[in-house]
Every structure is written in C-alpha cells, then in structure tokens.
C-alpha cells in the first residue's frame, strides 16, 4: 500500500511502485509474475499513469518553444511521475473521477526542467506567486533576503522569461499560445525592482507558472541541453467554471478530460 507523506507517495499502489530518490518522485511498473486480474485499485493506478503521461505531453508542449527543445534525458519521466503523484492524491473516494482543489498540483512547485542545471543553485529566491480574483501576480517584495542571480562563466547578461500555461482539466483543452513576460538582467544588476508581472487567469483553469533563464555572452546564447535552467514556480487551480469569455486560443487534448 502506498502512503502519501504530504509531498510524495511511497510504497506499492496497484501495478506501480512509488519511491523517492534524491528528493524526486519516481514511479515504476511493478513486476507481476504470470497473469493477474486487475483489481479496482490496479485499474485506477493504471488510469492515473495513462492520464499523467498524456497530460505531461500537453503541458510540455505549452512550454516547448520557450524551452528551446533542450531537454535532459530524465525530464519526461520525472514530470510524469510528479503528475501521477498529484492525480493519485486527487482521486474522489466516493465515486469515479477526481476531486480537484486550489493546490491539488502544488507538488509541481519547484520542479526543475533540467536537474543538471537547477534554478535553485542559480537563483537563491524564487518570486512570490499570488492568484486573486482572476489575476496571477509574480513579484519580488522588498525584504532582507534579496534575490541574487549567479551568472555562469562568460555570461554577461541573463534573460528571465515567465510563462503561464493554462489547462482546462474539465473539458480537456490547453492554451495554444501562453502569455509571457521577459526582462534582461545585466551581470551585477539588482533584480528586486524588476519583477512585477500580472497574468489574467480564466476561471476553472490549472495555471502553471514557469521561470526560464537564458544566459548570453553579448548576443550569443550559452544555454545547451546540459545547461538550460527552468523551474515551475507554482501550479494553482483557479476557482469556478470556465466560460468562453476570453481571447485565448485553445487546443484540444483528445481523450483527456477529468470530468
């Protein structure tokens, strides 16, 4: 039986083994000798894994252009594992389907796109993420602990890009062109007063805020597959039900809805 410790699942659930390695949730298929009839628990675990794989593909698609396709090898597997953990904890105990809350995907906060170049070793303090009345605010407030950006060798400036991806879980759609804001920071320049962005978030959407760091020497991009820092700052589900009253373009996610 798997146990949820508040952040990770540990143990066996259906056909899957959940464990934590170096602070990362890992999900693997449980080897079963011979043939075995699927129990309800096994079917749920299999369905969660299937939906996590599909959802992960679409979320990655939202950020693909900003990420530049420079993905390290464990990125897909680690992200699917994190989504499986989230969906498993959102199972509705009284009926089939899922019971989502504001912070149901909170375990995605801090997810590093590239574990070889984690943002946490480059930026000592992530910005504050707030979602109130349909507005997501990304900001650094004045404090004693000022944000500091560590520049790699030869880098003279850094482009910080904030992107908010939107997922409509209930009807299986995702945003086609996510909203984004960027600033360019020169080496030794203060960051504290430069970050204050607002994104409009429709009701009933999972909003995933991601920070990408692009380092340059002059106009030459220094990022590569082994050095491409990006991190999920937070993932929040906005309250209410989506109504088609916005200017976003949406893309179908065939076979994927959580109604």
TrEMBL record:
<protein>
    <submittedName>
        <fullName>Uncharacterized protein</fullName>
    </submittedName>
</protein>
